[in-house]
Amino acid sequence: MATIAHREGGGEPSDAPRGADIVLSDHGVSRLSLHDRLLGWRDAILASPRFQRFAARFALTRPIARRRASALFDLCAGFVYSQVLFACVRLKLFDQLADGPLSSAELASRVPLPADATLMLLDAAVSLQLLQRRSDGRYGLGSLGAALRGNPGVVAMIEHHAMLYDDLRDPIALLRGEIGAGKLAAYWPYAANRGAADLPHDAIAPYTALMAASQPMISQQVLSAYSFRSHRCLLDIGGGDGSFITAVAAQAPGLRCVLFDLPAVADHASERFRAEGLSSRAVAIGGSFLANRLPEGADIVSLVRVTHDHDDTDVMTLLRAVHASLPVGGTLLIAEPISGVRGAEPIGDAYFAFYLMAMGSGRPRTFARLRGMLSEAGFADVALRPVAMPMLASVITARKSEIDVNQT
Hints:
The protein is of the alpha/beta class. The protein has three domains: about 5-45, no CATH class; about 60-150, Arc Repressor Mutant, subunit A, CATH 1.10.10.10; about 170-405, Rossmann fold (3-Layer(aba) Sandwich). It has 16 helices and 13 strands. Strand 8 (about 255-260), helix 13 and strand 9 form a beta-alpha-beta unit. Helix 2 crosses helix 3 (about 60-90) and helix 11 (about 200-225) runs parallel beside helix 12. The longest helix has 29 residues, at about 60-90. It starts with a strand and ends in an 8-residue tail after the last strand. Mean pLDDT is about 85; it is low at about 1-20.
């Protein structure tokens, strides 16, 4: 599409619309707002080599120029940084240093790397705050490395990212739809699979284990934002191996719980409920929400990391099914990363957008979009509840309204 800019009061067209009052395009004539003109003026200044040289020298602008230059370089080098992290995780360097600092020679004797390559990796990890130099030339855990040791779910995701990197080797081809199903699509076999209910245990085991490893940090966000104590029965759809129900049951000892997931996954959950001593109050039922009727009798339904990896048509099918299964006044709770959340924009709008595209199913949605879908399905009182770490998950609650729009 060609875009031409004209300035008010005449003048020749320009290829650059910055500062222009009027923009002519294939869609017609549009007037730039004052905000747009100011941003165009800012863009022109920041792109000017002369201004960049001035900002780098002038005392008041030099710190800002350095921060922006560093941020831009981090974007360029981000893949290298992620591979340094990946190498540390694969070599279990953080576990090696859990009992105290070691020298590079000691670490080289424990990992399958030459001494000089070990030293290079250690120094790279120090620069990323994964490791830290200690006394006598030894290396210990850095602030980020220590935090990773206490979060096995994040470590599991880092190892899992090898498949994502492979699928993103040509992002433009991915955006154009020229790349078929890749490693992520095979890893998540239920995605866009109408026959998912027939998946065998060995097909669901890898992703079930990954979800279980990362579930504690998600459960913490949900339980800090919402209490289940006032409810009598929870239906957790897509509940995996039962990790979320186990966490909720500990908070609400009087709550009965029902898990609904693919049959092979539900078998894993039943085993966990037995191991946790929850068999008397928690049951796992196998099925597919796209093919089977949802269990009834719950006054609250949870969808934890479920809707964002399904397409709109399937999500509406699910929301209508949840609405039908709940009594009037029943509650729906959704927990997932959403798009456009302040402070977590790169997670929803960059990371999950490309992850789900590579996966071949779903997309991140804004709260406004989800609220509209919930309203269309018959829910009211839709609320976005505050959480401590929205980059992990946001929590949305809604209530079944008295009028069943799906029956009108």
